[in-house]
Write a structure and sequence with these properties.
Helix content of chain A: over 70%
Largest sheet of chain A: none
Strand content of chain B: under 5%
Order of helices and strands of chain B: HHHHHHH
Helix content of chain B: over 70%
Order of helices and strands of chain A: HHHHHHHHH
Number of domains of chain A: 2
Oligomer: heterodimer
Shape of chain A: globular
């Protein structure tokens, strides 16, 4: 019964996310929270691993959540769920190729969808920001703690490096090194 | 049979060697499918990419299904999709096994505390890049703000936001078309 729930959840995510993996994070976050499948910090760790392994972000995330919840069968079910809508929709469109591309309706839909996707990625940024900067809830103590300032500096540096087109894996590795150094050195 | 195997191996390779999601995968698909294998023309692959981006689901999976279908029908679509997904599936399965074993290590926990900052920075960059590609119109900003407010503060399922925007975009384009046809009459 719960496997069906897992399948349907990822089927829904696969059918309704446009614009790649990042937009999917908000949806996966919503669903895993509703179902209590994993903690929000765990989800951010999953995003990191998915980002540093090859393959589509969405497929990696689905496999991950599936394994975490119901082992290898869960992984198969979740991956199948996220891929199936794409597969079916593309097969249908492939038959009506020319009509789809030149359609004014599709163009209109995409024009409205794009800003919505940006808003959804904004939600992911806010949620992950809360986990990174205010892991124990937001209060005055956060702003006087050493860890808040260390990670704020790290964040600014990593954003600059990301805009300088440094490879994401390098950014993840460097941040991991800073995390380990801060953990052992400062006891954060 | 030979063609199916070739299709499978090509997409297996694409799935195993692209990092950073579907957009990073597109140049590789272009090189393998158009230049090396010559299965599909440059013009057609541009159309396929455009469609993959405007249909739901992972861009890489969409493109694989489409190229597979064009090359060898339904069987081709199935084989190519399987090929592009399989490496992810296997790699993540192995990694999650190791993560489970080592998650209690202090060093791993410290590393992930740092890595979360990296993830935030990477998504922030993606947000900025997408924000800049949106048409600078009042209605775009309105949709953006509404989408952020509803999914972030109201905790509404993003699916409803997507459906709402699709309906809005559809109506908008229909109204525009009617306006235009009235104007020429």
């Amino acid at each position: 019964m719960e496997l069906i729930e897992l399948f349907l959840t990822f089927l829904k995510i696969g059918a309704f996310t446009f614009g790649g993996g990042y937009a999917m994070i908000t949806m996966i976050q919503y669903e895993t929270e509703q179902h209590g499948w994993l903690s929000q910090a765990e989800l951010v760790d999953f995003v990191a691993v998915s980002e540093s392994t090859p393959g589509p972000l969405a497929v990696n995330m689905a496999t991950f959540v599936g394994i975490k919840t119901y082992g290898i069968i869960g992984a198969v079910i979740a991956t199948l769920g996220i891929v199936l809508p794409s597969f079916v929709i593309i097969l249908i469109i492939a038959k009506f190729f020319a009509h789809f591309r030149d359609s004014k309706a599709v163009e209109g839909i995409m024009t409205a969808l794009k800003p919505a996707v940006v808003g959804m990625i904004g939600t992911a940024v806010l949620a992950i920001g809360r986990i990174v900067f205010f892991p124990n809830g937001m209060n005055f103590d956060c702003f006087v703690s050493v860890s808040f300032w260390v990670y704020s500096c790290l964040f600014v540096i990593m954003v600059i490096l990301a805009f300088k087109k440094i490879h994401p894996i390098l950014i993840i590795l460097m941040s991991a090194a800073v995390g380990i150094a801060a953990g052992y050195g400062l006891g954060l | 049979m030979h063609k199916n195997l070739d299709l499978f191996l090509t997409f297996l390779k694409i799935g195993a060697f692209t990092f950073g999601g579907g957009y990073a995968m597109i140049p590789l698909i272009q090189r393998e499918i158009c230049e090396n294998k010559k299965w599909i023309s440059e013009q057609e692959i541009t159309d396929i990419v455009a469609i993959s981006e405007s249909t739901p689901g992972p861009v890489a999976v969409n493109a694989a299904t489409f190229v597979g279908y064009r090359t060898n029908g339904f069987v081709g679509a199935f084989i190519a999709t399987l090929g592009v997904v399989l490496p992810s599936f296997l790699i993540i399965s192995v990694i999650s096994f190791f993560l489970n074993e080592f998650q209690d290590f202090k060093a791993i926990q410290y590393a992930f505390t740092g890595i979360r900052v990296a993830v935030l920075a990477l998504i922030f960059k993606a947000l900025w890049t997408m924000f800049k590609s949106v048409k600078k119109k009042a209605v775009s900003y309105l949709i953006m703000g509404l989408s952020l407010f509803l999914t972030s503060f109201m905790r509404i399922d993003a699916v409803y936001v997507i459906i709402g925007c699709m309906l809005f975009g559809l109506l908008w384009s229909l109204l525009k078309r009617r306006e235009k046809s009235n104007g020429t009459d």
